[in-house]
Design a protein that fits this description.
Elements lengths: L1 H5 L1 H19 L10 H29 L2 H22 L12 H20 L6 H8 L1 H21 L13 H30 L2 H22 L5 H27 L3 H8 L4 H7 L3 H13 L6 H15 L4 H12 L10 H4 L7 H7 L2 H10 L8 H6 L20 H16 L10 H10 L7 H14 L9 H6 L17
Helix pairs in contact: 2-9, 2-10, 3-4, 3-10, 3-11, 4-5, 4-7, 5-8, 5-9, 6-7, 8-9, 8-12, 8-15, 9-10, 10-11, 14-15, 14-20, 14-22, 15-20, 20-21, 21-22
Length: about 500
């Protein structure tokens, strides 16, 4: 059921335009006939303008960031802008023109190039062509623009160019194949950017999804709509909506929080954590800063814990919603320490049992503080329960096993790893092999077994060997306070 809800909006974006086309084709009375050459040129010019603005922003961004994804986006949007402009200029009846094959060819070619470049934008920066693009982003864009510009100028100047008047007997079959390939590529890109949107709720990611979905609708309407009727006109509306939304999203996002260059560069990053972080509400960022000012031990620890927790969650195949909750909760898991008196939190010596009891109130204090911000609801379960134990011996509520929210169980494992492996003023960080042994020994009693298994998998990827002399209590004690405690030899961390 959760999976259905997660993809409901995407389903509507893909299905509703196609449903409109089906209705128009099945009910001829609704498929009104209308054609005006000047109106067509105006609408197509609007599409071209939106696409070219997005392209210009992307190329300018790529010139500063040298991110290949922005270059590919710029090339794809330039193709839509230039070729759709050519489509408008070749409109039958405009400037005394008759019907020309390029009126049909330009939209197919524009959307095929857009689909291809959007797919290529998702390739890793280490891919061969991308390494070349990183060194020469503007040159790459200009090299791609040159033949497209030349094609538009040549065909608009001479209608007979490249069989523009007579056509080619088999080109309709080619259009069918190109359309299928275009839709397939767009679906791949939609899946990639939909997951990124779910991670961070970034409007730029949603705009890319919308542009790709509207392009699929446009391809279908152009192939199966009736020329000069509503079922044909709607493909123009789809493209205008898709690329208009892209322009709005880029400028809204860039003006709101970060420079446009950063917005477009991160849009094509592979790291899921980067996409989650982009969606952080300002309330979260403010609270993290407040915690780090209050408690020097927390500086850097929260972000490291959040990044590791997301990596663990990825290997557990958790949903984007769960990964987002994990990251936000991990960033704020020590929020309650703002409410701990300084003389206890920053005490230079050992804590008494009574002082440790005060420290252990921080999950509930943090929960109360975060509850005041509705945008942080996802993080609440982690903040409150990251010190619970699978065997029920944790705090504040002594929950057992599956009673503990999964997100909190994941963060608990990431928290202890960072606590054990980080240097503290009272002891150096333990070797990764030792830390892993202690955490593995605590699996099933102190920590969630699946989360520990995911950490072991990660450690294997890092090349960390597994030791065999771990102690469960050592791992547990490592995340309870920032001090040594009277009566305990375990040293602990935030």
């Amino acid at each position: 059921m959760n999976r259905i809800r997660r993809f409901r909006l995407l389903g509507l974006l893909l299905v509703l335009p196609l449903a409109c086309l089906v209705v128009l084709r099945l009910v001829p009375g609704l498929d009104l006939a209308f054609f005006d050459a000047q109106a067509h040129l105006i609408v197509v010019s609007g599409i071209a303008a939106c696409a070219l603005v997005t392209a210009a922003v992307a190329v300018a961004s790529a010139a500063r960031s040298r991110h290949p994804g922005a270059v590919w986006l710029g090339i794809g949007c330039s193709a839509v802008g230039l070729l759709m402009l050519g489509h408008g200029l070749m409109t039958p009846g405009q400037f005394g023109r008759g019907f020309n094959q390029w009126v049909s060819r330009f939209p197919h070619l524009a959307l095929a190039i857009f689909a291809l470049t959007l797919a290529l934008a998702g390739r890793h920066a280490s891919w061969g062509p991308n390494r070349w693009i990183q060194r020469r982003p503007v040159t790459t864009a200009l090299l791609a623009l040159a033949p497209m510009s030349a094609l538009v100028v040549a065909t608009v100047s001479n209608e007979a160019m490249l069989r523009g008047v007579t056509g080619v007997r088999w080109e309709e079959n080619v259009f069918d194949v190109v359309s299928v390939a275009t839709v397939a590529l767009l679906l791949t890109s939609i899946w990639t950017h939909w997951r990124r949107w779910q991670l961070g709720r970034d409007i730029v990611q949603f705009a890319i999804v919308l542009a790709a979905a509207m392009s699929i609708a446009a391809v279908t309407a152009f192939q199966h709509g009736r020329f000069g009727q509503l079922s044909w006109w709607d493909y123009h509306g789809f493209l205008l909506a898709g690329f208009g939304a892209a322009v709005y999203a880029v400028f809204q996002r860039g003006a709101g929080q970060r420079a446009i260059t950063d917005v477009l560069s991160v849009a094509f990053d592979d790291d899921p954590f980067d996409h989650i972080e982009r969606g952080y509400p300002e309330a979260l960022r403010s609270l993290v800063r407040a915690v780090e000012i209050k408690d020097a031990y927390t500086h850097g620890h929260s972000e490291r814990t959040a990044r590791l927790a997301v990596e663990i969650g990825l290997r557990m195949r958790l949903s984007p919603e769960q990964l987002r909750a994990i990251a936000r909760g991990a960033f704020l898991h020590d929020l309650g320490k703002i409410g701990i008196p300084d003389q206890i939190l920053n005490k230079p010596g050992r804590l008494t049992p009574e002082e440790r009891a005060v420290i252990e109130t921080h999950p509930e204090l943090g929960y109360e503080m975060a509850s005041a911000a509705p945008s942080l609801n996802e993080a609440l379960s982690v903040i409150l329960h990251h010190h619970e134990r699978v065997d029920g011996q944790g705090y504040p509520h002594g929950l057992k096993g599956s009673q503990i929210p999964l997100e909190a169980r994941v963060v608990a494992v990431a928290d202890v790893w960072d606590a054990l492996t980080s240097d503290r003023s009272y002891r150096p960080g333990w070797r990764p092999e030792e830390a892993l042994a202690h955490i593995e020994a605590a699996a099933g009693s102190h920590f969630d077994t699946a989360a520990v298994d995911a950490l072991i998998l990660l450690a294997t990827e890092w090349g960390v060997a597994r030791a065999s002399d771990g102690q469960a209590d050592e791992a547990w004690e490592a995340v309870q306070t920032c001090h040594e405690v009277d009566g305990s030899t375990a040293l602990t961390s935030v």
